[in-house]
Structure formats: structure tokens, C-alpha cells
Specification:
The complex is a heterodimer of chains A (about 300) and B (about 375). Chain A is about 35% helix and about 30% strand. By secondary structure, chain A is of the alpha/beta class. In chain A, strands 6-7-8-3-9-10 form a six-stranded mixed beta sheet, with helices on both faces. A four-stranded antiparallel beta sheet of chain A has the order 2-1-4-5, covered by helices on one side. Chain A starts with a strand and ends with a helix. With about 375 residues, chain B is an alpha/beta fold. Chain B has two domains: about 1-40 and about 170-360, no CATH class; about 45-165, abc type-2 transporter like fold, CATH 3.40.1710.10. Chain B has helices at about 1-15, 20-40, 60-70, 85-90, 105-110, 125-150, 175-200, 205-210, 215-245, 250-275, 280-300, 310-315, 320-335, 340-360; strands at about 45-50, 75-80, 95-100, 115-120, 155-165. The chains are: A alpha/beta (about 300), B alpha/beta (about 375). The interface of A and B includes residues 80, 82, 87 and 88 of A.
């Protein structure tokens, strides 16, 4: 049975179309990632699925319950962690956890095993006010609070935004552990690198899914060879790459530019071309595409359609 | 039930942890009562008295001497023409004018009755009422002395006239008024802010996505402020009785019942406001300007309702504090039974029910 299923969901705020005829399913026990930039409509989608917003049209079910008609039932079985840190800043770590446990009719002791891994890390600070925790610890507390009632489906809206890289990594390790406990997890993130850890990834932009697939398959399907290009004059390089007639796309990507070539283009010629433009230390080498490259390609294609 | 309990505990924790607000909530009513109470209660000494005495006989002289000897008045001016009365008030030099009738002594001796007029500045009704009160007291003393001397039923008819504001209000207004104000402030403002804060910080999103029932959320927000309000009512009343000397002549039971009903009205108003706005600032503004101002203006606390134009009086009927203050006055000062404030009590009960229903109906189980 699908843990989450959405059919033809649409939602607009005035003239802004936040969701456009969105349909998808999440299988039980799946770790499902929704990847997209800010403003893609991720939060709107989460709020509709958690019964907090009404869609303009379309239906959605979570754990077999309609999110509109059976919203009470939905609220009994989901765990939700909104994007903004939303625990009580003026209560301590322990008080927050205890409060959310009782709100969900359970106790900390009953489900401690679920949160033990996460909670142990913040337990030394259990008497500290939640508002005084660091970003990473706040997220761990929020996750603990969202998990304490052993939800069937866990919705995490950008749980790692604003969290340092080490905590992000820890956080994803916890998600993988939770998945092994049989909890279905729907998680959104603007970080493409986190997508590879999901079972399936939906690439989202302008209220639509550009593509849904396993991260591996997404990357395998990348239709072109991807070249990383570097030189000693990186800031000039982008302009020169764009000036080269055979460069189809080029994106800044950390220390290098990711470039696809079309038509007559080949890496040797590109290198020679760049050297004639006065670049030294030019390197052009093939690299495997990442999820972000897939996203860029997909969003570029839909952009062309418009 | 455990959910509810835990929610209430959490609310109390949050209130107690916010020390500054807490202090304001508990101390403010005391300060208000003391300030307003003493400002009104403080006895007036050395009020400036002017006299217009066309008869200038032995009796009027005797009365003037009595006034001059009193600790309340200083005789500062003898007026020669009646037109001067208005001038001295406009100049602000005089607090009270004593006007004798013509041929005062002969009237007193032949008719057994003579007239005195007391003219006070009604723009400050409390002070005016107090001054005329003192003056009437002195006149009564004079009359008693005359009775002994002449052994005849003489009567000095004191004719009190308040300039600018013919009906002056009772000085005891302030206690019911302050209770009404404080309850409005604490219940309405604090509850609305407490709920809107959850919306603003995003915790409401988590609460809504939980199995918590909306009614429970609302009730658990109300309970702590209800408790605080009861504490405040008791403090204010204790102060009023033991420090200010304001009597509670009527039934304590009905006083408690009315106060509880009024607290519910204020709480429901707060809840209603919280369902209408989404920012703490707007909640503060709405409850501040939307509730405090009408409460102060239309409750009869400062501006007497009787002297308001009809349209404004009609508006004042919708101000809950107006009815509550009327009940409190009847219970505390007049000491009358429930039959005399049945209508007022009915009005606030109705208000409580309607507002509560509106707040509940308006409470959104989803984000807007």
C-alpha cells in the first residue's frame, strides 16, 4: 500500500501557482526525497499532505486517510517537522520532548528506543532552553519531538537547512536508521548532495515534479558526457566558456564548471580555445553527473519549453 | 485529559518564565488601584473659595468665618458682581464659589429659610462633588448652630450647582473600573498574544498537525489567564476594601459570579482576536486600541455615560466592561440584591456565550 499518494494536486496563492497538477505516490517504508530550490512549492506540498492546507483541486491520502475528510486520522499517524524551527524556545529540551509526547498520547519512555540515537546527543543539554541550542541540536530536538509518537509517515520539510555539514551528515544517518525501522519518510531539501541518500528522488521546480526516479537511475540517464573545466582564471572562465560556440550548458559547481558540449565540440578543442583566450592551467576532464547536474539539465529543458 | 493537563502545565511554565510580563500582570493592577484610588481619595485641603455676598449681614459673615476657619477652604476673594463668577472659574483661580441670596439674614428670620448657592467646576466631577460635599457639611453645621441660638426651625437651603457637568459620578467608580480594565487587559490581550505567538513562531503548525483537539488548545490557553485574573480580582478587591476603604455592601457570591462571567467575556474576546490576526503586534494593537480604548471611554470609568450623546451611549452598550462596572457598583456601593442587576448580568452572560461560540467557530483547524 502506498504510504502517501497525491493525485492532481493544485494550489495557487493569488497569481502564484505553488503546485501545478501534481501526482505521485510514496511506497510504505520508502525514503522519498523532494529536491528543489526555494520557492519550488515544497512547503506548500508538505502542508497539504499534513492536512494543514487545503489544495485548490486534487486529492491526497496519507496512510490510507484522506487529508481533507479524515484529517484527524491523518494527524494521529504522521510526524511533521516544519522548515522553521518550531518548538518552544522558552521551554527546556526535556520539557519540549515531554510536551510533544503527551500531546500525541504517549510517553518518552514508551518510544525512547526510536529517538535514543538522536536524543542521546542532546541529552546532556536537557535542562537548557530550546532557544539556546545550536542549529544542529535544534534540528535533532525537533526530529526527536516529531518522532516521539512513532509516526507511520514522517514529513520533514528542509530539516537540514541552516545546519552545519557535520550535523547534516549525522542527521541523514539517523534518517537511514529510522527507515530501517519501517517508518516512511518524505523529506525535502535544497541540497542536491543529500538526494543520493534517498530511495527515490523527485526533482521539483515551479510547483511541478521534473522527474521522479532513484538517484542512481537519474544519474545513469544523464544523456550527455559531462566535463569539468578549470583554469587559473576562474572568474573569467565562465564568460569565455559561454563565448565558445559549442558549449551547450555551463554551471558553476564548486571548484570547477560543469560543461556539456554539443555539435562539433570536443574537449581538446575547448582546451585549445581557452588557451588562446589566455587561460593557463586549463583542465578539462569527464566526470559522472550528480543529482544536481540532472536537476540543472531538467530545469533547463523545461525552461526551454516555456 | 493528560494532553490537556500537559498543555496547561506548559502554558504556566511559559508565563512564569517570562518574569517581566508576569510582574507586570501581577503588579499593574495593584499600582493602578493605588494610583487611581489615592488620586481620587486624597482629601482636598486649602481649596480656593470665592464668595458673592450681596446681603453682607451678620449671618452671612458668620458663615463666611466658618468657611475660612475650615481646613478645607481658604477664602481668597470677595466678588462684587455676579458676572465675576464665570471669570474666576475661567481664570482657574477659584475652586468653589459660595453665593448668598439677597437679604439672607432677614429671609432666615422671617421666612425661616434662606438660600445659598454653591458653584463648582464640573469639568472635574470628582473634585467638584467633594468640594460641594465639604461645603454642604459646613453649611449644615451653621444651621445646627443657628437652631441652638434661635430655637426655631431655620433652614439654610444649599443649592448645589455644578458648572459644565451637571451629573457628577461617584468617586467609588474606580475600583469596579480598574477591575474591568485589568481583566480586559490580562485576559484579552494576554490570551490573544499567547495564541498568536504560537502562530508566529510556527509552533501552531506542529500543534495543528498533532491529534490535539482545537477546543483543548483554546481551553488550555484560557485556564492560566483565568487563574491569573482571579488572583488579580481578589488582590484589587482586598486593596479596595482594606486600603481604600471602599465598602462591599452586597453579596460576595454574586460579586464572584459576575467577575467570573466577565473574565470569560474577556477571555473569549482574546480568543476571538487571536483567530482573526496572525501577528503578535496586530494582536496587541487590536486588543489595545480595539478593547482598551472603548473600555476606558465607554465604561463610565472616566467619562460619565449619562452626558454622552445618544449615538455614543448606544455604542457603549456593546462594551462588556460597561455592564460589569454597573454590576460591581450595584453590589459594592449600593449593596442591592441580584434582582437589581439581573439585566446587566444577563447581558454579560449572553456576551460570554456569543463570543465563546464565535471564537470556537472561527478557530481554524488548518493554516490559512
Amino acid at each position: 500500500m502506498a504510504a502517501v499518494s497525491a493525485t492532481h494536486l493544485s494550489k495557487s496563492y493569488g497569481k502564484v501557482q505553488a503546485l501545478q497538477d501534481l501526482s505521485f505516490t510514496v511506497e510504505a517504508g520508502e525514503l522519498y526525497g523532494i529536491i528543489g530550490p526555494d520557492g519550488a512549492g515544497k512547503t506548500t506540498l508538505f502542508r497539504i499532505l499534513t492536512s494543514l492546507l487545503l489544495a485548490d483541486s486534487g486529492t491526497a491520502e496519507v496512510a490510507g486517510h484522506d487529508v481533507v475528510k479524515d484529517y484527524r486520522a491523518v494527524r494521529n499517524v504522521i510526524g511533521y517537522m516544519p522548515g522553521k524551527f518550531s518548538l518552544y524556545q522558552d521551554l527546556t529540551v526535556e520539557e519540549n520532548l515531554h510536551f510533544f509526547a503527551t500531546v500525541f498520547n504517549t510517553t518518552i519512555e514508551e518510544n525512547y528506543h526510536l529517538i535514543a540515537d538522536i536524543y542521546k546527543q542532546i541529552e546532556p543539554f536537557r535542562k537548557r532552553l530550546a532557544g539556546k541550542l545550536s542549529g544542529g541540536m535544534k534540528q535533532k530536538l525537533a526530529l526527536s519531538c516529531a518522532l516521539i509518537h512513532k509516526p507511520e509517515v514522517l514529513f520533514l520539510d528542509e530539516p537540514t537547512t541552516g545546519v552545519d555539514p557535520v550535523s547534516r551528515k549525522e542527521f541523514w544517518n539517523m534518517l537511514l536508521k529510522l527507515k530501517r525501522q519501517g517508518i516512511t519518510i518524505v523529506v525535502s531539501t535544497p541540497y542536491m548532495d543529500e538526494a543520493t541518500l534517498c530511495d527515490r528522488v523527485a526533482l521539483m521546480q515551479h510547483g511541478k515534479f521534473l522527474g521522479v526516479d532513484t538517484p542512481k537511475h537519474l544519474m545513469e540517464q544523464y544523456p550527455e558526457t559531462l566535463w569539468a573545466v578549470r583554469s587559473d582564471g576562474m572568474h573569467r572562465l565562465l564568460g569565455d566558456l559561454k563565448a565558445y560556440p559549442h558549449v551547450r550548458s555551463s554551471f558553476s559547481f564548486g571548484a570547477a564548471y560543469h560543461v556539456t558540449l554539443g555539435g562539433e565540440g570536443n574537449p581538446e578543442e575547448l582546451k585549445a580555445y581557452l588557451e588562446t583566450r589566455g587561460h593557463t592551467g586549463v583542465e578539462v576532464y569527464a566526470i559522472p553527473p550528480s543529482v544536481e547536474d540532472c536537476f540543472m539539465l531538467l530545469s533547463k529543458n523545461t525552461g526551454d519549453e516555456r | 485529559m493528560k494532553q490537556f493537563q500537559s498543555f496547561v502545565i506548559k502554558e504556566f511554565r511559559q508565563i512564569f518564565r517570562d518574569r517581566r510580563t508576569m510582574l507586570i500582570l501581577l503588579v499593574m493592577p495593584v499600582v493602578q488601584v493605588l494610583l487611581l484610588g489615592y488620586a481620587i481619595k486624597t482629601e482636598i485641603r486649602d481649596a480656593r473659595l470665592a464668595v458673592f455676598d450681596p446681603s453682607k449681614d451678620a449671618e452671612t459673615r458668620r458663615i463666611k468665618e466658618r468657611f475660612a476657619a475650615s481646613e478645607y477652604f481658604i477664602l481668597t476673594e470677595e466678588l462684587t458682581r455676579p458676572e465675576q463668577i464665570n471669570d474666576v472659574f475661567k481664570g482657574g483661580d477659584i475652586d468653589l464659589v459660595l453665593v448668598f441670596g439677597e437679604d439672607f439674614a432677614s429671609h432666615l428670620q422671617h421666612d425661616g429659610e434662606a438660600a445659598v448657592q454653591l458653584i463648582a467646576d464640573g469639568t472635574d466631577p470628582n473634585q467638584a462633588a467633594m468640594l460641594t460635599g465639604y461645603a454642604s457639611g459646613i453649611l449644615a453645621d451653621c444651621q445646627a448652630a443657628l437652631l441652638e441660638n434661635y430655637n426655631a426651625p431655620f433652614q439654610i437651603r444649599a443649592n448645589v450647582r455644578m458648572l459644565y457637568n451637571p451629573q457628577s459620578e461617584s468617586a467609588y467608580n474606580f475600583v469596579p473600573g480598574v477591575v474591568g480594565l485589568v481583566l480586559m487587559l490580562i485576559c484579552a490581550m494576554m490570551t490573544s498574544v499567547a495564541i498568536v505567538r504560537e502562530k508566529e513562531t510556527g509552533t501552531m503548525e506542529v500543534l495543528l498537525a498533532s491529534p490535539m483537539k482545537p477546543m483543548h488548545i483554546m481551553l488550555s490557553k484560557m485556564l492560566p489567564y483565568f487563574t491569573l485574573s482571579v488572583v488579580n480580582v481578589v488582590t484589587v478587591l482586598l486593596l479596595a476594601v482594606f486600603v481604600m476603604g471602599v465598602p462591599i455592601r452586597g453579596s460576595l457570591f454574586w460579586l464572584a459570579v459576575s467577575s467570573v462571567v466577565f473574565i470569560f467575556v474577556a477571555l473569549a474576546l482574546g480568543l476571538l482576536i487571536s483567530t482573526l490576526v496572525s501577528r503578535q503586534m496586530s494582536a496587541l494593537l487590536v486588543s489595545g486600541i480595539g478593547l482598551m480604548m472603548p473600555t476606558i471611554v465607554f465604561s463610565g470609568l472616566i467619562f460619565p455615560l449619562e452626558s454622552m450623546p445618544e449615538g455614543l451611549r448606544w455604542i457603549s452598550d456593546f462594551v462588556p466592561a460597561r455592564w460589569y462596572i454597573a454590576i460591581m457598583r450595584k453590589i459594592m456601593i449600593e449593596g442591592v440584591g441580584v434582582a437589581y442587576f439581573f439585566k446587566e448580568l444577563g447581558v454579560i452572560v449572553l456576551m460570554a456565550v456569543v463570543l465563546m461560540a464565535a471564537a470556537w467557530k472561527n478557530f481554524k483547524v488548518r493554516l490559512v
